[in-house]
Design goal:
Blueprint lengths: L2 E7 L3 H12 L6 E7 L5 H14 L3 E5 L6 H11 L4 E4 L5 E2 L3 H12 L5 E9 L5 E5 L8 H6 L9 E3 H7 L10 H11 L4 E12 L9 H13 L1 H7 L1 H17 L1
Parallel strand pairs: 1-2, 1-4, 2-3, 6-9
Antiparallel strand pairs: 4-8, 5-9, 6-7, 6-8
Helix pairs in contact: 1-2, 9-10
Length: 254
């Protein structure tokens, strides 16, 4: 069983190198790495990283877009280029613990016919390394109701059957934020089933951006709610009401 690791990156070669070191430390080794550079300005630094990690990682590919197209476009480019049936998604500023892939792949080996999406727990840390949030929800099987309530899947954690991502339509490149939440909603709404490794196996480096203080985050939140209005109305009408109320308060405040 093999894994394609897809990493979008933009202007963060130092952080990307930290992530790649954590990938090299994985106890599971049967993977390829696909780095998609979204037109970064420091091309020389990325070319240097490309040369370095082609020597260190058996299957390492570096792709580059001409001009900035956004992280969802980079993720989609990497997913389309992936050669293996399982895709691990992670951003360039996050980190994995060494047992992450091994434990997720083991779930797929034991439950391939019943599971399509395996995630892990994680901790979100700020710029100073302080823990700001623990992602420790356990959702197995039908996850539609849970994912509509809130995004319980931290972005550096999922390992997903590639066919699920393709059939769900890949990442929405028009959304300014909440692209991962939208993607998970579409995957689970198609009936694909979830499993969890109930251990903290990644570090999610969160920055000081919230829906309340960032217009792009706010817009993406509202557009995701509107895009899945029917699902929210059917499964989570109270959550929908809270989202509408939050939108009204934010608009009044702004």
């Amino acid at each position: 069983m093999k894994v394609s690791i897809v990493i979008p990156t933009f202007n963060r070669p130092g952080l990307l190198k930290r992530l790649l070191k954590s990938i090299r430390a994985q106890t599971f080794r049967d993977y390829e790495v696909i780095v998609v550079d979204d037109g970064s300005e420091d091309r020389g630094a990325y070319e240097s990283l490309n040369r370095e990690f082609k020597r260190k990682i058996k299957s390492f590919r570096y792709l580059r877009t001409e001009g900035r197209r956004g992280a969802p476009h980079s993720r989609n480019l990497g997913i389309r280029a992936a050669r293996y049936p399982l895709v691990a998604l992670v951003d360039d500023d996050d980190e994995w613990f060494k047992e992450k892939l091994r434990k997720q792949v083991e779930v797929f080996r034991k439950r391939w016919k019943e599971v399509d999406f395996v995630y892990t727990w994680a901790v979100a840390v700020d710029e100073k390394g302080r823990v700001r949030h623990r992602y420790d929800k356990s959702v197995e099987g039908d996850a539609v109701d849970s994912i509509l309530r809130h995004n319980f899947v931290p972005s550096p954690s999922p390992l997903i059957k590639r066919e699920c991502l393709l059939k769900a339509g890949l990442f929405d490149e028009t959304l300014p934020s909440c692209q991962d939440w939208d993607m998970w909603i579409r995957i689970f709404a198609r009936g694909y089933r979830s499993a969890v490794v109930p251990e903290i196996l990644c570090l999610y480096h969160k920055h000081a951006v919230t829906i309340g203080n960032n217009p792009r985050a706010y817009e993406g939140y509202l557009r995701t709610a509107w895009k899945h209005f029917g699902l929210f109305l059917t499964h989570r009408p109270l959550t929908l009401l809270k989202m509408v109320w939050a939108a009204i308060r934010l608009r009044v405040r702004g």
